[in-house]
Amino acid sequence: MSTLASTAQDSTAPLRGPEKKDEEEEEDFEFSPFFGIDKGAVLQEARCFNAPQPDARTCQQVITKLLYLLNQGESFTKKEASEVFFGATKLFQNKDVNLRRMVYLCIKDICPSSDEVIIVTSSLMKDLNSNSDLYRSNSVRVLCKIIDSGLLMQIERYLKQAIVDKSPVVASAALVSALHLMTSSSEIVKRWVSEIQEAAQSKNNMVQFHAVALLHALRANDRLAISKLVSSLTKGSVRSPLAQCLLVRYVSQVIADSSPGFNGEPRAFYDFLESCLRHKTEMVIFEAARAICALKQVTARELAPAINVLQLFLSSSKPVLRFAAVRTLNKVAMSNPLAVTNCNIDMEALITDPNRSIATLAITTLLKTGSESSVEALLKQISGFMADIADDFKIVVVEAIKGLCLKYPAKHRALMSFLSHVLRDEGGFEYKRAIVESILVLCQEIPDAKEAGLGHLCEFIEDCEFSYLSAQVLHVLCKEGPKTKAPQKYIRYIYNRIILENATVRAAAVSSLAAFGAAVESLRPRVVTLLQRALADNDDEVRDRATLYLRQLGGAAGGPAAVNSVLDVSLAGMEAALSGYLAGPTDRPFDP
Question: What's the pLDDT tens digit per position in 239-264?
């Protein structure tokens, strides 16, 4: 396919972009090999299928373009699809193996209508009975994709034979096709149980994997049947590592649906999961360890063998095993931090791992399981690579630091200082919001951290590019600022927003400023002066808020107490009542 794709390009399309004249633009932009492909032109090229002696390579290139258009969401009319389909069926006469494979893909993706399927069925049946495993496996896939239940019953005998075929390629193709048929013809597939069970004893890893998946799909809606299947498979000879991983997942589902053992009794099938920890294949060992760690109400005794295995993976030379282990331990640390403490020494070694994802997960896990004395050292190590990781991982780090600060309130100064530092760094909206919300939570939960947190947030809104976050911080300032020892220091930050920001933030700043004037009488004259300057704002909302608050601070319209008044009704109920009123006749006044 890669060779065909490279030759399927429009002859006028460049492989690379034009040479950059600007020295600052150093990157070369790669163009798609399908650059400039037009559906009409490709349909014209598809007429080569009707040639008396079609060239195999040209036809492969055209089919590649057609498949590309189909996978890009291009729609074909019924006439266009029929012409391509009939042309593709003529290519069955060509003996080129690569072209035949492309024809199979073309017919599968075009999905001919029921009256057109008959035309190609005979050719596919001929391939189904051929001596070539390649032809037989692909014909099974195509037939199961394009035929309906009526035609399926006619070829049922051939499909049952294919499931138990000696060739693993053919058997796997038949089993996967049966999995797809479960959505439309499940009753017919259920009649093949004996053949599927025979395939489940195959010595080929892939065949056994697909057979086990199909046996489970046949019983997907019956908990008792799944339990019996799992019970029989755990006692049987499932040798395929892929099938074993699948079986571990099915066992996890059965355990999740059952209640944990009483009085220290082991859970059903737990012994099987524990035995999989001693499997010779790493992926089975990890799957079993992950399944044990994900058990509901898991005990320390049940976790211990899985944690020991994951601890060994932490020192593996394979990055994927290190990542898988530290990610699983990170999840365990959220609910059972004490169970992971034995792995701390191994995870400390991963802080300098060249893979930043592994290093980040190691840091966050240590933050959840570390001691109070190690906080400063961890923060110092985190600061070194925060700029090199993606925002998703940064959010994980921020959440871990918030949890650590709530766990050790005495360390709030160091942790709050770290959060304020990363808040000034570059980052997206979700990352910044996570930091702001973490600081707000810490201000609420740790009284000693409130003034420092509000100060950090004031510094943040001085150069904040997100209006939502600025408005949120201003709202918090109007609620908590007046209660601090020196509320006057926040006035400057709030008034700067009225001068420098957009209309949304200016309106929020006016409300916040008025709240200070209402709550702190000594600041009221200064607040009134600042609000009077907002009366000349070019935005209606800002001017209206300033006018209202000036009247209230002057004693009218409810007085200063009305500035911070809380609407004592359910906003959701009010919205529902207003919607119902507007939906009906409005000749009567609104009465909630």
Answer: 889 999 999 998 888 888 776 655 55
